Prior knowledge:
Helices cover 80% and strands 0% of the residues. The chain has 2 domains: 10-214, Up-down Bundle (Growth Hormone, Chain: A), CATH 1.20.1250.20; 216-335 and 365-401, Growth Hormone, Chain: A, CATH 1.20.1250. The longest helix has 36 residues, at 371-406. The radius of gyration is 21 Å and the shape is globular. It is mainly alpha-helical.
Amino acid sequence: MINANLVAPKTPHRVGLYFAFLQFFFAITWTVYVIFLPKLAVQAGIPKQAVIYILMLDQLIFVAMDLAMGAIADRVSRVLGRLGHVVLAVTLGSCVAFLLLPFAAPQGAPWLFVLLTVLWTASSSALRAPPLMLLGKYAPKPSVPWLSALSLVGLGVAGAIGPYLTIVLRDVDPRIPFALSSLALALATIGIIWSERTLALTSISGAEVSAASPAKPTRLTVLFMLAVLLLGLGFQIHFSINSASMYLRHTKPDQLPYLMPVFWIGFNVLMLPAALATRRYGGLAVTAVGALIAAVATLAASTTGNLNTLIVMQFIAGGGWGCVLMSAVSAALAIGHTGSEGKITGALFSLLALAAFARIAMVAVELNKDPGYSALLTWLPVAAWGLAAVLLLIVLPSQRERFAAATA
Length: 408
């Protein structure tokens, strides 16, 4: 129990910006990994056609480890300052495993390459739920949506430059980008200890921090998690499977690196003002509205015959996804308040990883190339986002007071 002063806490903007840099470098390591994985796997003696199954394994590891790291974060954070040290130690180990990947591949030992991949993937989960869990535990509740939005800007920027990195790094010695991204992420993670203490001091200045009993699963939790899975599926199918084919109806393949980032530009631009709406109306409401916006924009994008209109709709769809992800994180922190912030946020990322696994599995069985399923894939994001919005709207009326208390 920490005694409080009666001074209104200030919003720790610096921590939000720091988390943005942290998430950016984390996302860049994943981009570098995906770019070079086929080449490295072949060097390690793994057939190229098996690469997609390695990616599926990565997502299954995320499913398990996000849940585990969220639960661990709840327990470890009961002692001020301990979580930052745990995250730093695990991430430094993750960076070492990532750094060794391009050096291990030429050894021609598939087991060593897969082992390092598993170690990297499992340990990198420390940078998904735990940092955001700190916002839910310590940050002034009205500032959580804004800080969540700042934190996720890093993911949006990394997503936007991903296509350019694919072009720039295509012929580079993989040891160079692996080393640079590992070093950058390791250096960035050092600040996690500072961020935990800064957030804790902010909390101490304005409110009492106590260890509350973890929240038990409720109807709200179940419906929210089901909605998250649907939201993740909608995003994965729309952006990773459908978007490129939509653009290719109007332009040539060499233009894709300049068009695909439009989605992520919309993600960043519309997510920040949506944080203000989340503060006023709550995470569930904004998640539902964002899902509806993304669904309508995706439907319009799939039916338009004009490239300029498609670009606008992709911008809006990206903005809708930005609203969804930011407000869903805020909602997860509110549902887990207090005592289960890490567990609920970890479950959110776990389900998003499960959605990514489902998308990669569709590609593995070449469902996306089957003409019989093309229409289904076009409508799936619209249906998934729309159904998720309905689920959230069902529970919203009974949860207004709870979310108002969690953000007051």
